[in-house]
Amino acid sequence: MNANLSLIRDLQSADTRIAELKQEIASLPKHIAEIERKLESHKQALAADQAALEENRKARRLMEGDIASHEQKLSHIRVQMGEAKTNEVFRAFQKEINFGEDSIRKVEDRILDKMVEAETIERNISKAEQALKIESEAVAKEITETRARFARDEDELALMEDKREALASSIPPDVLKIYERVRKLRGDAVAEVRDDCCLVCNVMMRPHVSQRLRQGEEILNCESCGRILYYPSLDGPRVEDPAGESNLAAS
User: Are residues 73 and 182 in the same domain?
Assistant: First the structure.
């Protein structure tokens, strides 16, 4: 195989890996931000439940205060009722007592509703606290692992960029120019050929182009997509076919 073609393939492998590393490096901080955002949203949901429970308790304390106020008022009315001089006054006091007792029952019913609501909130809080503890530990572990992967990627990226620079400097400028032009246009500059067909654009090569490519001495571009072509079989050793012509063994 043409030595430059081999270098170009290595260069594309380096470029592909560099692109992968850059993409992953760019995605890792976003990944950390996303899992932290989810964790924070769960913390906020827990805080909302805790605030709702506190409001529930506050409302119950106020209602309990209302009951105490009603009971104190009823106590005074009963004293006054005992001192009533006429049936009319007595019945008036009795009516106030009935009204006060009815008000107390209504407040007590509301307190019971609040107690049932509080039990539901408390169960939700207990479950959320347990889940949040597990999630916080998992997030902390994942962040540590992600940051470690980020550091490894950056180290590998530096090595790959050095490797790319060395490869690029080993390729003749005119050949490198072709590679860079195609890569800028297509994203990847090299395409494998199989059965006389470019495996990227699926276009068949003309016979004379295929023959020249099989000889492995030239840098040839696909007439359709423009990518630099190669036969993987050209990597192997030469063997003699039954007709006595020299071929290349498939790798």
Answer: no
Are 117 and 181 part of one and the same domain?
A: no
204 three-state secondary structure: strand
Sort strands 228-230 and 197-198 into parallel, antiparallel or unpaired.
unpaired
- Residue type (1 letter), 45: A
Residue 160 sits in the same domain as residue 183: no
Domain final position from 145, 170, 195: 170
The strand pairing partners of 44, in sequence order, are none
Sign of torsion over alpha carbons 109, 111, 115, 121: positive
What ranges in the chain are assigned the alpha helix state H? Answer: 3-82, 87-170, 173-186, 207-215
pLDDT for 234 equals: 57
Judged against a pLDDT cut of 50, whether residue 242 lies above it is answered with no
Q: Quote the pTM value.
A: 0.67
Q: How many domains does the chain have?
A: 2
Q: Which domain holds residue 81?
A: 3-170
**How high is the mean pLDDT of the chain?**
89
- The answer to whether residues 5 and 216 touch, using CB atoms and an 8 Å cutoff, is yes
Sorted by sequence, the CB contacts under 8 Å of residue 197 that are 6+ apart come out as: 203, 204, 205
Spatial CB neighbours of 217, under 8 Å, sequence gap ≥ 6: 2
Token pair in block for residue 174: 């005119």
Of 142, 170, 198, the last residue of a domain is 170
Residues 96 and 177 in one domain: no
What would the pLDDT profile of 97-148 be if each residue is shown by its tens digit? 999 999 999 999 999 999 999 999 999 999 999 999 999 999 999 999 999 9
Tell me: do 63 and 186 sit in the same domain: no
Tokens of 245: 């012509």
